[in-house]
Structure formats: C-alpha cells, structure tokens
Amino acid sequence: MSNANADSLVASHDPNHPANLICELCRLFYNNGWVTGTGGGISIRKGDHIFIAPSGVQKERMLPDNMFVMDLETKEYLRVPKSLKPSACTPLFLAAYTNRNAGACIHTHSQNAVLISLLYDKVFTIANIEQIKALPKLTEPGYLGFFDTLTIPIIENTAHEEDLKDSLEQAINDYPATTAVLVRRHGIYVWGETVWKAKVYNEAIDYLLELAVKMRQLGVPPDGAIGSERNTRVV
Amino acid sequence: MSNANADSLVASHDPNHPANLICELCRLFYNNGWVTGTGGGISIRKGDHIFIAPSGVQKERMLPDNMFVMDLETKEYLRVPKSLKPSACTPLFLAAYTNRNAGACIHTHSQNAVLISLLYDKVFTIANIEQIKALPKLTEPGYLGFFDTLTIPIIENTAHEEDLKDSLEQAINDYPATTAVLVRRHGIYVWGETVWKAKVYNEAIDYLLELAVKMRQLGVPPDGAIGSERNTRVV
Amino acid sequence: MSNANADSLVASHDPNHPANLICELCRLFYNNGWVTGTGGGISIRKGDHIFIAPSGVQKERMLPDNMFVMDLETKEYLRVPKSLKPSACTPLFLAAYTNRNAGACIHTHSQNAVLISLLYDKVFTIANIEQIKALPKLTEPGYLGFFDTLTIPIIENTAHEEDLKDSLEQAINDYPATTAVLVRRHGIYVWGETVWKAKVYNEAIDYLLELAVKMRQLGVPPDGAIGSERNTRVV
Amino acid sequence: MSNANADSLVASHDPNHPANLICELCRLFYNNGWVTGTGGGISIRKGDHIFIAPSGVQKERMLPDNMFVMDLETKEYLRVPKSLKPSACTPLFLAAYTNRNAGACIHTHSQNAVLISLLYDKVFTIANIEQIKALPKLTEPGYLGFFDTLTIPIIENTAHEEDLKDSLEQAINDYPATTAVLVRRHGIYVWGETVWKAKVYNEAIDYLLELAVKMRQLGVPPDGAIGSERNTRVV
Q1: Nearest to D227 among A39, A111, A121 (CB)
Q2: Are D133 and D146 contacting, i.e. CB atoms less than 8 angstroms apart?
Q3: Which residue of D has its CA nearest to C127?
Q4: Using 50, 70 and 90 to split pLDDT, how confident is the model at B133?
Q5: Positions of B marked catalytic
Q6: What is the DSSP string of A107-143?
Q7: Distance (Å) from the alpha carbon of A229 to chain D's nearest alpha carbon
Q8: Is C130 a catalytic residue?
Q9: Which band of pLDDT confidence, cut at 50, 70 and 90, is reported for residue A232?
Q10: To 5 degrees, how large is the angle CA D148–CA C219–CA C151?
Q11: Using one digit for the tens of pLDDT, what is the confidence trace for D152-195?
C-alpha cells in the first residue's frame, strides 16, 4: 500500500473513527490517572484493520497521525508512522482479537489494578455490588446479576510486555467468562465486542477494584459486612 | 401523539429544558464518579411530563434525543427513543413523584453511598456537621440545624432494580423527613421539589457520606471526637 | 442610590472586577469540593465597597448580577439582588475587614478543615513543611520560614452562622499572627490583603490541612517522623 | 540586550516555545495539586537560554511575559520581567543543567513526595512495578526494567531554597542513575534531557510515590506482598 493510501487510513472527520477515538479516549484515561507517564495503551478494530497507539508516547497528546494500522489476517502493518515504535502490547491486543473476537482492547496502569494485584492471589473476586451488573456473562447471553460473583484472573508480570502473551492467552482460555485480565504489579487488560463496550467494562471494573481497595482499608470483607446476611447469597 | 410531536418534547434551545439538563447534569455526575460504567440515572418532571434517561447507556454521552418522556397521570410513554430501553429506575422515580410530589430524582452509584451501606445497619445518621444545614426538614418548613441529626434509611438491594419499589416506598413512608434512601451495596436515590434542589441535596448528602467514611478511617466517631463536649448537643 | 446605579456596581467587562472574580473563584472552589451543596461563601472589598455572594445558592452557578454590595463605612447595602438572601457569613466577613483591613475573605466547607477540627483541640499547628512559607507572619513583615510553626485557632460552631462573630473576633484578637480561623465541624475562614493573597493563603492552608490528615492516617506525627532529628528545629 | 529584544525572547506563537510551555505545564501541574499556593517551579532550556518561572506567583495564572531568561554560560539575566522576583529554585535548576546537561527541570510540592520523605530515610526505593519502566537508566542507555530497583535520594530541607544547592549537587554526584531528588518535608526536583522527558519522568515518579504511600496504608511492603515470591527478583 502506498504511503498516501496508508495515511488515508487514519485521516477522518468522523469523531468515531478509530484513529480519532483512540486520541479522545486516551485523554480521558490520562485524566483518570490510568495512562500517565506514557503508560498503558489502546487498540480498536474496524473490520480487519487494527488501529494501535504507539509505544512510549504521552498518551494524552497523541494525534490520529501517530497510529499504527495492522491487518488482522496477515498481521502485517498497513501503516507505520514515522519515528514511532509499535506498542509492546500488540501481541496482547491480538490475543483479545483472535481468541475473543474483540472490537477493542484497553490496557491501563490503574493504581487500583496494581493494588488489587498485591492484595489478591490468583483471582480477584467481588460479589453483591450493583456495579457488577455492567459486566457481561459471556459464557451465556446477558449480564451478571447482583448476586453473581465477578472473577478476574491475575497473571504474573514478565520483564518484557510481549512475553505476557502466553499467560494472557492461558487466562483467557481458563476463564471463558472474563472480559479482563489483571497483571500483577503492572495493570489490567480489558476488552469488549466494541470500543464502547470495552470502555464501559473498563470503567465498571475499575470502580469495583477501587471499591475493593477502600473496603480493605475500612476492614470490610469484600463479600460480607453489615447487612450481608440479608443482602448476599452464595452462588 | 405523532412521532414528530413526540420529538418536539425533547427539542429545545433552553439549557434549562429537562432534556438538556439531564445531559448536562449527567456529565457532571460522571466527572464525580457517580455514574461511570453506565451506572445511575436521573429523571426530571415538568408539569405532568416525566423525562427519564435511558437504561444501559454511557451517562456522560447522552443527547436530549435519547430521553424517554412519560405522562405522570397515565404512566404511558409519550416518547420512546429508537433502540433504547427504558430505565429500570422508572418505578423508583415514580415512587418519589407520587409519594413526595418530587420535581426530580437522582440515582447514583456513589462509592461513598456503597461504603456507608457497608458500615451502617438500618439507617445512616450524622449530626453536628455544618453541611447538614443544606438539607430540608420536610416534616416542617425550613432546613435542618447544626445540632439536628440527619437520618437516611438503608434498604436491602434486590436482584432487579424495579423490585426495590416496595421497600423504597416503605422507607419513604417510614421516614417522612428523609429526601433520600440508601440502597445497600448499590448506591442512593435522592429527590427534591425541583431539579436544582435534588442536585443540591445529592451533593450535600454525598459530602456527608464521604466525610463519615473518612471519619471512620481516622477512628473518629461520627457524632463525637475532640470538641464534642462543647460542640454537640443530644437532640 | 437608584436601582440602575446599583446594577452598574456589578456590571463590568473586567474579569478582575469583584463581581466577576467572585463567580470565577467559586467555580474553582466548587471543583475543589470546598463549596458544594451551596456551602461556603466569599467576599471581596474594593475601596469601601464590599461585594458578597448571596446565601443558599449554588456557588458554581452564580452570575455577577447575583452579588450584594455593602458600604463598609455605613454597613448599608448599596445593592440587593432580587429574590436573594444576604449571606449569613456577612458579619464574619466584616470582622475580617474591620479588624484586619482585609481585601477579601473566603469561607469554605473543606473536608480537610472539618477533619482537622475533629483531630485537634483548640489550635491546629504544623511545622517544618515547605508549604508553610506561602503564609504571612503578619505580626512582622514577610512570610513564615520553614522552621516556623503555623498556628490556626479553632473556634466552636454555633447554631447560626452569624453567632460565630464574637468568637471569630476573639480568635482574631488572640492570634494576631493568623490569617485564618477554623470552625469546628464546619469549615474555615481565610482572609488576606487582596483577593489573590486570600486565595493563595486558602490554597496553602488547605494543602497543609490535607497533608496533616494524611500524616495522621499514616501514623506520622505532624512535627516528627523520619529525618525529624536532622530536619526540624524547635522554635 | 535592549528591552525590546529581551521581550522578543518570550513572545512566540509556537505553543512549544519554552515561555508558552511553562505556562501550559504549570496549569496542568496546578490541577494535579503539585504547585498550588504559588508552590513549585519549572525551568526549560533552549540552547544556552534558560527560561524560568518567577518566584511567589500563582503558577496556574502565569503569562509568557512573566518569564525570566538567563544565559547558561554567563549566568546573567537576559530578561527580567517587571515587578517580579527571580525564583529561589534557580541555583537548583542550574545544578541540573550544569551537572546533567538537562533540558528542563521541574520542582513540585507534591504531597506524595512530602509523605514519602516522612516514611523513608535516606533513599526511596521501589521495585517490581511496571511503571518503573518509564524511567531511564542514565548510567547506561535505555530504561529501567521491571525487575530493577528505582532509587531516589532524599536530602534534608534548608531554611532557604537556594541553600539546597550543595546537597542537591552532592546527591546528583552520589546517585548518577537518578533523574530526581526528593527534599524532605518539601517536595521533589525532577529533570530530563528535554522538557517532555522531564514531564514524563515526573509523572511516572509521582505515580510510584503515590502507589508506595497507598501500599503503606494497606500494609503491603513496597517490594513484597502476594505474588512476590513468583513475581519479584532481587537484583
């Protein structure tokens, strides 16, 4: 593909075009403290084209012109922006696209995710909180209910981000009902059928992680506390 | 009502029109972390017309065109926006309109509300804090005084939001002086005579819930601590 | 003064005009959580004219047209905006103008101020923190040094805000070096020679109150901790 | 240099001109709570010209016209804005320029920095957190790895900011791998090859300081906790 054609892949006046949306969402994530210090990343799929934010740049200052575009089938780059490096998250985004047919994948360094990974062992679970209902069941249609337990696997971090691929895929296979994987001392990967679903899932999960940290600070057990005998159910 | 007429119910250049105000206030609530992940909801009444935000959408990205409109008398929808689902909060908003002649009702997933519901049993009470004075007495004219106790009932959550209706109405009846009901492990419902009063009450209550959580973290009893012998009065 | 003349007192294109500045600063204070739920207040003096935000309104939504104007000499209102009530803080603002020749006075319901008033008895003190240097000595020219101790008196709250006047004036007299008074379970009053000094003092004090709360949460004594033997000096 | 020429040093339509960038970044830092109450400072180098924010002003309200410009070789001011005082941080910024060939130096009163200086003795260290990878090795090319330990020296505060120069230079010499120095009970100095690197380093470090404070609050050892046996390595 000629260079001019490649540039046309990221040039659009539509605010919902992936190249524009990645920039807008990263500004939002930056303001939430999720991608400061160049941390984190995001990828959106449009048909067979995968748009990926570059590595090591200030996520809140990206322009559509900074985006990599990859062909999902051939795994070849259709567009490589000048002087930028591809994201080390790329194999992990591909894992979500390939194994889950995701439409977008978000990676943050949320401090809530890091703290939860220091407080929980192999999985994070939380139950009986209304916000759980924003998350999908996945193994069957529909969303989790209030009395359901949300379970998110925690994988160990590796020296190089791309080396997380195997354990991330293992977690995706071992936990078919999860739409996210926590990476110990690192952050979280969240994906969804569409970019908006991925965004909402990430928001709802971060709300629950933050709440669980606060519950720990207050000495409240995540699945118990006042009213629990009336308001929780083992499932 | 024809479709064109129904659309005119939500089309207005007046920023204080309910359909516009719902969008503006939800952006504010989103920035406060009260309605992230599609959580929460809001409804405003204008005469006999009730405007209601739809279910399961990103609350900070709504447009006036997304609003449902219901007739308070007949409980029939005057306007149903295409491809959107009515809010499961609707029966609860109606409870506030019917039982309290409210002008607006706000529902949030505020983490302060959830945490307080884990720390208190059947009611949340707080006394001798100046911010209490922003809240109405209701059973008589005027506002609470500094030495008064604010009491907000806590009801148990249910699997389906609409099933909260009976216990919410029970709480409204049992606590005629309250302008809010906490829902355990879920959030809070706050209403007021006008949308601005509902907004102010919700802000003042959330301030008090947040303060009570922080007092607990610091080991300060909500109604006591240094200066209490001089500065508090049992009422 | 005729009504038209009275309105001209608050109509100006100069962003630094008191009526405009009160609105701008209150939006800032609202975003800091200092004046939510209609709490708090502010007054700016321009010569012998005192501009005062009204009582019981949403502080972030005020317009210049909402401002009261009082003559400092005669204590008579030069302008009373329609359907608004004078602030109950007015006697307290006057105390700062009269006793300290202040140019502006800020009142917030900062949660940091309320929490500190629950943790300290008759005064709040903090020493050996760089931010102290933003605050004036007052009893002599210049600013506090790093090794100085900042002392802010705490007065007891009263049922009616205006009844704080006597104890506020007492504190102003008893603590000639203070530019602020904490009100237990209520908030803080901060004043300065100009509106910008008052704003800066309020910011610096709130920073120190917040830090002292966090130090308490971490079990660090406000005037001690690691490095204290090398880095603090009793003065 | 004539006055007109001196003014041309800070007048530019380029948003990346140091005089413009200082203003933009200080607004960002203010919103992060790093430079409230006139605290903190920043300097950017462009060739042999050093641009420095003035002392004692509201950092979020500065204009390009407020900037000092100094010649790095001669240490003479090329531009002195009217009625403003040079920053007391100037000798410390020069230390970073002279000893490290920095392109910019940021000084904040971040509460995370102050709190960490109260919890750690002579150095702050943190290991096995992904965000560490945003920081440079300096003593060799490239960035720190996940299993590396970030070490930031802590120096004692002095009565006058300029007196920090000797101990700051000592710390710079003693810790050739550091791009920042914590000042006990005061804040932090962070520098980098370019202004953007300095900004990113400061963000990444503050993230790590904040995380370490939260880990302490939760009783999690900075280099240990669940998963540590699998996910940490002594280096």
Answers
A1: A121
A2: yes
A3: D185
A4: very high
A5: 130
A6: EE--HHHHHHHHH-SSEEEEES-GGGGGSB-SSSSSB
A7: 27
A8: yes
A9: low
A10: 120
A11: 999 999 999 999 999 999 999 999 999 999 999 999 999 999 99
